[in-house]
């Protein structure tokens, strides 16, 4: 699915088309100038001039193709201005090739080539001036700075036109003193306008905030030994709890079981008395003789086997079956009973209201009032 072109792309394509058509028109104009000089000019050096014209047109075609390729990487105004400068250079070169020789001895092929190179260099220098001057003018935009910018550009175009015109016809026109006065005055105005914009920016343009320096990266923390790094948590930060736990263990000292006593108390060696092994059977082996210097070991006497006594059978009540499995212990009933609710204190009636009560209750409340109870 093709994307629709944006307005900027449409404008850029229109400008490039216009620049290409201007280049085509310049080629046609240069060709017509060459044809006019061929038909009505002198025959001196006709072949050489025709060859130089072919070289000039081929060079301009190559520059136009290069400008068209670089148009996508440049602003629109820069592409158009660059194409215009090369068109002017093409016209100056065509005039230099087919222009008749002047009577002055200074007019020779080397001088014409030198003046053509000066004209091309001046056009490119003016283009560089505009390219550097435009961003400075856009930094602090007011009505005053806008007027200075357009006035300076206009005077720059006039200055370049005056100088290029002189470089095109240096020996065929007699230039008066006023011409050069105008050139110098326009040069001063261009210099003043070029200087005003940077001064206004330095005084009134907002300053760019200072760039914050990148924070210095600290080394990864280690334990108290300065070698073992701390473990990292899930978020990438060091585990300081492990560091504090290691410090507490170092302050508490080694555990008691890991420290050996400095001087152990001497332990008296007690000669172990050998014990006779248990007899396998009463009549198989003879008794072991006693060890010299020790008490005789008594001979074990056989004990008669004891008969196992079985527990008495459980007694059963006639007429009632009882399971052999033991019953589960029951909880006493006093623990299963609910605690008695707190008894509510009876209110003692006032003597004046005893007559409204039944006879028995009247006598009871009357006795309480006589004993000093609360009415």
What does this entry look like structurally?
By secondary structure, the chain is an all-alpha fold. Among the domains are: 8-100, no CATH class; 103-205, no CATH class. 52% of the residues lie in helices and 0% in strands. It is built from nine helices and no strands. The protein has helices at 7-40, 46-70, 76-98, 109-139, 143-168, 177-204, 240-252, 333-336, 359-370. Helix 4 (109-139) runs parallel beside helix 6 (177-204). The chain is elongated. It starts with 6 loop residues before the first helix and ends in a 5-residue tail after the last helix. The relative contact order is 0.04. The model is unreliable at 280-285 (pLDDT under 50).
List keywords for this structure.
about 375 residues, mainly alpha
Strand segment tally: 0
Beta content comes to under 5%
Helix percentage range: 40-55%
Distance from first to last alpha carbon: 103 Å
- Average the pLDDT over all residues and give the rounded result: 74
Protein structure class: mainly alpha
Q: Which sheet architecture does the biggest sheet show? A: none
Question: Helices and strands, in N-to-C order?
Answer: HHHHHHHHH
Quaternary structure: single chain
């Amino acid at each position: 699915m093709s994307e629709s072109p944006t307005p900027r792309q449409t404008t850029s394509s229109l400008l490039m088309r216009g620049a290409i058509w201007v280049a085509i028109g310049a080629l046609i104009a240069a060709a017509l100038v060459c044809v006019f000089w061929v038909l009505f000019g002198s025959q001196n050096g006709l072949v050489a001039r025709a060859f130089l014209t072919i070289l000039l047109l081929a060079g301009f075609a190559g520059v136009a193709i290069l400008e068209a390729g670089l148009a996508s990487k440049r602003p629109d105004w820069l592409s158009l201005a660059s194409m215009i400068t090369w068109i002017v250079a093409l016209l100056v070169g065509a005039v230099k090739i087919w222009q008749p020789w002047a009577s002055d001895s200074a007019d020779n092929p080397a001088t014409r080539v030198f003046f053509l190179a000066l004209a091309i260099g001046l056009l490119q220098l003016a283009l560089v001036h505009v390219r550097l001057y435009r961003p400075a003018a856009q930094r602090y935009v007011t009505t005053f700075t806008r007027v200075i910018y357009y006035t300076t550009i206009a005077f720059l175009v006039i200055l370049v036109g005056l100088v290029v015109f002189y470089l095109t016809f240096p020996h065929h026109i007699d230039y008066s003193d006023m011409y050069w006065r105008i050139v110098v005055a326009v040069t001063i105005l261009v210099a003043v306008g070029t200087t005003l914009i940077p001064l206004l920016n330095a005084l009134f343009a907002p300053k760019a905030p200072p760039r914050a320096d990148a924070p210095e990266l600290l080394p990864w923390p280690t334990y108290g030994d300065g070698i073992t790094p701390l473990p990292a948590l899930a978020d990438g930060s060091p585990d300081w709890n492990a560091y504090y736990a290691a410090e507490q263990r170092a302050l508490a000292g080694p555990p008691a079981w890991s420290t050996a006593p400095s001087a152990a108390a001497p332990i008296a060696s007690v000669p172990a008395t050998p014990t006779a092994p248990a007899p396998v059977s009463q009549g198989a082996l003879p008794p072991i003789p006693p060890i010299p210097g020790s008490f005789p070991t008594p001979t074990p006497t056989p004990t008669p086997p004891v008969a196992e006594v079985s527990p008495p059978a459980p007694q059963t009540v006639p007429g009632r079956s009882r399971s052999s499995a033991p019953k589960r212990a029951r909880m006493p009933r006093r623990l299963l009973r609910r605690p008695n609710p707190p008894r509510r204190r009876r209110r003692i009636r006032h003597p004046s209201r005893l007559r409204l009560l039944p006879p028995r209750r009247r006598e009871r409340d009357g006795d309480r009032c006589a004993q000093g109870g609360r009415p």
